[in-house]
Amino acid sequence: xxxxxxxxxxxxxxxxxxxxxxxxxxxxxxxxxxxxxxxxxxxxxxxxxxxxxxxxxxxxxxxxxxxxxxxxxxxxxxxxxxxxxxxxxxxxxxxxxxxxxxxxxxxxxxxxxxxxxxxxxxxxxxxxxxxxxxxxxxxxxxxxxxxxxxxxxxxxxxxxxxxxxxxxxxxxxxxxxxxxxxxxxxxxxxxxxxxxxxxxxxxxxxxxxxxxxxxxxxxxxxxxxxxxxxxxxxxxxxxxxxxxxxxxxxxxxxxxxxxxxxxxxxxxxxxxxxxxxxxxxxxxxxxxxxxxxxxxxxxxxxxxxxxxxxxxxxxxxxxxxxxxxxxxxxxxxxxxxxxxxxxxxxxxxxxxxxxxxxxxxxxxxxxxxxxxxxxxxxxxxxxxxxxxxxxxxxxxxxxxxxxxxxxxxxxxxxxxxxxxxxxxxxxxxxxxxxxxxxx
Amino acid sequence: xxxxxxxxxxxxxxxxxxxxxxxxxxxxxxxxxxxxxxxxxxxxxxxxxxxxxxxxxxxxxxxxxxxxxxxxxxxxxxxxxxxxxxxxxxxxxxxxxxxxxxxxxxxxxxxxxxxxxxxxxxxxxxxxxxxxxxxxxxxxxxxxxxxxxxxxxxxxxxxxxxxxxxxxxxxxxxxxxxxxxxxxxxxxxxxxxxxxxxxxxxxxxxxxxxxxxxxxxxxxxxxxxxxxxxxxxxxxxxxxxxxxxxxxxxxxxxxxxxxxxxxxxxxxxxxxxxxxxxxxxxxxxxxxxxxxxxxxxxxxxxxxxxxxxxxxxxxxxxxxxxxxxxxxxxxxxxxxxxxxxxxxxxxxxxxxxxxxxxxxxxxxxxxxxxxxxxxxxxxxxxxxxxxxxxxxxxxxxxxxxxxxxxxxxxxxxxxxxxxxxxxxxxxxxxxxxxxxxxxxxxxxxxxxxxxxxxxxxxxxxxxxxxxxxxxxxxxxxxxxxx
Lengths: 439, 482
Fold this sequence. Notes:
- The complex is a heterodimer.
- Chain A has helices spanning 13-21, 45-53, 74-77, 84-89, 126-130, 149-158, 171-178, 221-234, 241-256, 276-290, 316-335, 406-417, 423-426; strands at residues 29-30, 62-68, 78-79, 110-111, 117-118, 134-141, 189-192, 206-209, 296-301, 342-348, 368-374, 382-383, 404-405.
- Chain A is of the alpha/beta class.
- Chain A has one domain (13-216, 257-426): 3-Layer(aba) Sandwich (Alkaline Phosphatase, subunit A), CATH 3.40.720.
- In chain A, α2 (45-53) runs parallel beside α12 and α8 (221-234) packs antiparallel against α9.
- By secondary structure, chain B is mainly α.
- Helices cover 53% and strands 3% of the residues of chain B.
- In chain B, α16 crosses α17 and α16 runs parallel beside α18 (326-334).
- The two termini of chain B are 37 Å apart.
- At the A-B interface, α6, α7, β8, α8 and α9 of A face α1, α13, α21, α22 and α24 of B.
């Protein structure tokens, strides 16, 4: 068993690309020895995933997506601290290595596998990682190289290689449509916030909400059912988006009447941060526990566009990572054993330039990271092929190359955890390659 | 699987999913071809009511009759040529907002939440009472186009000046003047980080967004290299921080500027250009055909919705001929048949809120209580974090129907502090037809029968019948569109 195999740190990119396309996990798994038997002899990952998706009788997970908007810096979140180039390119923004005695332990990287380590603000996640419930994919992203937030976000939310022609609907919406059943809940998907994200564009049985406790028609109690009935009539006819949304809202009102979210108390002493993300995950946990048939919760966390004073262990990025780490850790602890039926995916539109800029920040780059957390995550490992960050290993602009397509990860989650056997309806013209992040 | 026709329509909209769903595919494809018919409501439209709905934040009682007698051309020309006068009530209410009475720097003594509240208050008051409604609509348009997130750093303290000296001042001017003002705006210099863009390794944030979002639009011909060159041009464009100088004013700091030669979009710029480097960039961008097209496309969509597409070429041509004269570009759009004939446009929460206030001629202070409703509906002004502004696509807003209903109920029932509807003074006469006409600024037609019947029943429910009737009219699907 190799202790550590940073494939790609040397060698030519063409050769790496060839290796990447080979249907084996060998080159894909970083920093761990692992059984390769499961994938031996398989020619098409799609066929493989289709088989996984066929287990439709088994219950599917609840999928929780967290989109880090603005382009989260994978290089300072899951730090390749063993790379000299990291410290050379980031004289002000880099974080001290795990064994750097010049600084206190709380300001050092938390080692993951001898090559990568967490930003100290992510240390609340170390137990999930060590318990094997948090998998990390590095150097991943879309094929969109515009470095535009809006193009890159649209590409990912629409489920495309890059922004351009293709279905207007979102990938989560197509997943829901392709797994539709007659007994679906009126609340199949929820977004926390004031608007619906593009990933849910076209989805039915979906609402956006800020707060579960506020989700009721605020009329006098004795008139509530009367007005709901009137609205049901007014929104009854019509095939446009608004009447459709009105009908769904009324169905969700009906459904949420069965629960009392104000009474929700997290289990196992979990304490969620009082932030949008913390509150969103707390309410997600409440909805999952209420067993209303929720399938997907889509959350956003903005503030990752750190051109200016991103900082190292102190600064904007550190605060954002702290929120992410503590919110996820609280959710993980709250759900406890029920995590067995939950999969959380954390993603972002792109990573950031390897070299820092003159205002203690970083500009738009290419590859970043993804987290997959859940009872069925094959965690404790960092997946993907590390392309390296020496100058000759970067792309023309000086950015980390994308070696894992974000759709590879999502396909695996949809097929294996969400029991979707129609991946081609979700991600068109895409042949997923195995990553191996979930069982 | 059992599919209703409705399901198929929806799946048709999903496009890609259709092929996977065998039996329904044929039907769904058929509906998909009629995407417009299926996704937008039909219903009778009174041309004048539509006109007023699109050019203003919604008709007040009597507005439509007034426009009918003045004639469309005269009305459009009056809106295109606002004078200095303003509604007296508005002037009085605005005069009480400290944040517009002090300089950005001095306003730091006011807590941030108060600054933000007053900014939103001013926007709600101006949209509701402003005499020059087309200008108010354009202020909304440009505020989102040159979006600034007020919770980033100290942006809130600089947004008031940006609102009055950039957005409002140039809302109906030429686009290049508006762009140049925005580039010098301390709020923008802070929001898109140009104040930290200095010689060495430039900060690309503003350089990218000025091309992608403010002028040319993405994939319109610029490259990553252009982004980096434009960033170099803007190095040293920062904010005054020196003692005994006008704090927070724009300042060019030569010592932070990269004075080397540059090439932007094929234009070579010799070394030693100093502050003029970025002036030249603004000039190149302001005259670029891609800018003409991008701005035209957005303006057309704002006023014409889906029908805007066929007006883009003509509007871009006007941009090129007039140096981006916003009024010249707008006039034909506002007089077009598409404006009154084409499918409706969903009101965003701010539009919805203000149109309800105007329809009922409500008194409002625009304060914290009504702002809370706006936030719940999803559009707390100046709080969209990304530089692209609040979304205009319908699907972004369909998840938040409930807060819309809750707002119009609270409004009708008199439960919003600082906002009041004088039902007694409104000419509805407890008559369902008249209540409909009051709120919708048009006569009822066959498709409105369901609503009118409900409202008629509501009037019979007792003392709070008026509130219920008003609520139903404003909560109905037909009031969600303009």
